[in-house]
């Protein structure tokens, strides 16, 4: 058997295999025997017809196809062993030549990540979160609006009202917004900026046209950065009657007895939310910094696998709300191929980040303990109430356990990286060196010297 190896793309090689003629001949005769056993030829017992007659009857291509199916798995194993490669996924077979028989295997190789000097990186930590009274007042206003009652009024729209309207938006002659009988609270948080103000003064039955521009970072990519001409028809104007700000509102809002308790609870919840958002921004900046100094190579199939996983997750979400994937494609006016291309940039970004973080975890020797995996599985299962035991059993399978392990390791890597780059956690080598340098001084102070916060294992802030 002759084997050659050729690099044909990022982390992809082509193995060209030419098996020995004797091996091919043996496989062809075996294929002829099997075919004539399944479809006996007149005058011969099943599997006993002469090879030449079987070849004339069924054709050499039919025999060759069966012979290749028989030979390919073993030839593939021998070829990758000889080339000393570890496939990332199953190789793809092509027949390069029929006579002599030459097989070509396109083999994807595992991704390779070369981390940059991440210890030299630094990102600015987010400032300490401070919750102001004005922010708490905004939270209370949101609660008042959630508990508001509405009455239809015969007057022009004012800020704070609720309207039922038909909204059509066009960009360069193409309709990109169409909401029939939409219910909107006319508040200055409506996007794009200026939309609420543009409705002020309109009456029921009145239409108005105006143009506004969505911000570049708007969530919907179809609208981000576009100047849209809106045509709005108001159908109903409702006045919002907001409850008074007192202890009764606190009792309506949640497990509070007084307005003071509610303000305190809102402040704590708001601080936690803002701190989580700050940590998320830091984490994103840290990951982007690490990616920017790292080199990543991966086979094309890795990205296709990530795209497929994204689509499968989308299908699962659609099933949960009783919607079919086919109807979803019809609704957005795309084929699956078009959707895959739309998903590709974000899937590639996600894949690169995952690969870099996984390599960072290896470099820093981060680990996840079995107890952590069990605790996470129990935490996930607890969300399902009466089905908790059933879900926990599903999460105990090897595949689910590996998935949980990967998620926890990624979380640990993100936190460790963020702490390093913000300066909250010093590199291990630096900490060890400092500890060694300070050891004689600690000994000189005597055995009764008070240990530092680090020696006590105090949380790092």
Q: How does this model look, in words?
A:
This protein is α+β, with helices and mostly antiparallel strands and 461 residues long. The protein has 14 helices and 11 strands. Strands 6, 7, 8, 9 and 10 form a 5-stranded antiparallel sheet that branches. Strands 1-2-4-3 form a 4-stranded antiparallel sheet, covered by helices on one side. Strand 3 (92-98) and strand 4 (101-108) form a beta hairpin. Helix 8 crosses helix 10 and helix 11 (370-382) packs antiparallel against helix 12 (388-394). Residues 429-461 have low confidence and may be disordered.
Features:
disordered C terminus, 461 residues, 14 helices, 50% helix, five-stranded antiparallel sheet, four-stranded antiparallel sheet, Alpha-Beta Plaits, alpha+beta, Chitinase A, domain 3
CATH superfamily of the largest domain: Trigger factor, C-terminal domain
- Summarize the biggest pleated sheet: 5 strands, antiparallel
CA gyration radius, whole angstroms? 33 Å
What structural class do you assign from the helix and strand content? alpha+beta
Mean pLDDT: 88
- Sequence of secondary-structure elements: EEHHHEEEHEEEHEEHHEHHHHHHH
Query: Looking at the structure, what is the overall shape?
Result: elongated
CATH top level assignment of the largest domain: Mainly Alpha
User: How many structural units, i.e. domains?
Assistant: 4
Do you know the CATH architecture of the largest domain?
Orthogonal Bundle
Annotated CATH topology of the largest domain: Trigger factor, domain 2
| Strand residue percentage | 15-25%
Number of helices: 14
- Percent helix: 40-55%
Counted beta strands: 11
């Amino acid at each position: 058997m002759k084997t050659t190896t050729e690099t044909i793309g990022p982390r992809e090689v082509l193995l060209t295999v030419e098996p020995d003629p004797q091996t091919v001949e043996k496989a062809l005769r075996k294929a002829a025997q099997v075919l004539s056993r399944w479809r006996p030829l007149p005058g011969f017992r099943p599997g006993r017809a002469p090879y030449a007659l079987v070849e004339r009857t069924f054709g050499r291509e039919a025999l060759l196809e069966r012979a290749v199916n028989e030979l390919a798995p073993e030839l593939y194993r021998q070829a990758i062993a000889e080339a000393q490669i570890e496939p990332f996924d199953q190789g793809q077979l092509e027949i390069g030549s029929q006579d002599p028989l030459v097989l070509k295997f396109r083999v994807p190789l595992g991704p390779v990540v070369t981390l940059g000097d991440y210890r030299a990186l630094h990102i600015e930590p987010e400032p300490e979160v401070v919750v102001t009274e004005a922010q708490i007042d905004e939270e209370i206003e949101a609660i008042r609006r959630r508990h508001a009652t509405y009455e239809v009024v015969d007057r022009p729209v004012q800020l704070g009202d609720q309207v039922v309207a038909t909204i059509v938006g066009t960009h360069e002659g193409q309709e990109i917004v169409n909401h029939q009988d939409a219910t909107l609270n006319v508040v200055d948080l409506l996007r794009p900026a200026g939309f609420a103000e543009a409705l002020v003064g309109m009456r029921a039955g009145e239409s108005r046209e105006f143009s506004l521009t969505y911000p570049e970072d708007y969530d919907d990519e179809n609208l981000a950065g576009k100047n849209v001409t809106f045509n709005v028809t108001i159908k109903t104007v409702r006045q919002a009657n907001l409850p008074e700000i007192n202890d009764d509102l606190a009792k309506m809002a949640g497990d509070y007895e007084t307005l003071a308790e509610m303000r305190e609870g809102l402040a704590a919840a708001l601080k936690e939310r803002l701190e989580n958002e700050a940590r998320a921004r830091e984490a994103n900046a840290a990951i982007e910094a690490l990616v920017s100094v790292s080199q990543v190579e991966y086979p094309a199939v890795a990205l296709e696998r990530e795209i497929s996983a994204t689509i499968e997750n989308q299908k699962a979400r659609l099933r949960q709300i009783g919607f079919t994937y086919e109807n979803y494609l019809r609704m957005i006016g795309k084929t699956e191929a078009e959707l895959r291309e739309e998903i590709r940039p974000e899937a590639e970004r996600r894949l690169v980040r995952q690969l870099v973080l996984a390599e960072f975890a290896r470099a820093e020797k981060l680990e996840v303990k079995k107890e952590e995996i069990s605790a996470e599985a129990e935490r996930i299962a607890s969300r399902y109430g009466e089905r908790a035991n059933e879900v926990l059993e599903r999460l105990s399978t090897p595949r689910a356990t590996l998935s949980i392990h990967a998620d926890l390791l990624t979380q640990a890597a993100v936190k460790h990286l963020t702490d390093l780059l913000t300066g909250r956690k010093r590199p291990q080598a630096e900490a060890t060196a400092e500890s060694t340098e300070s050891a004689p001084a600690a000994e000189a102070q005597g055995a009764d010297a008070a240990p530092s916060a680090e020696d006590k294992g105090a949380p790092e802030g």
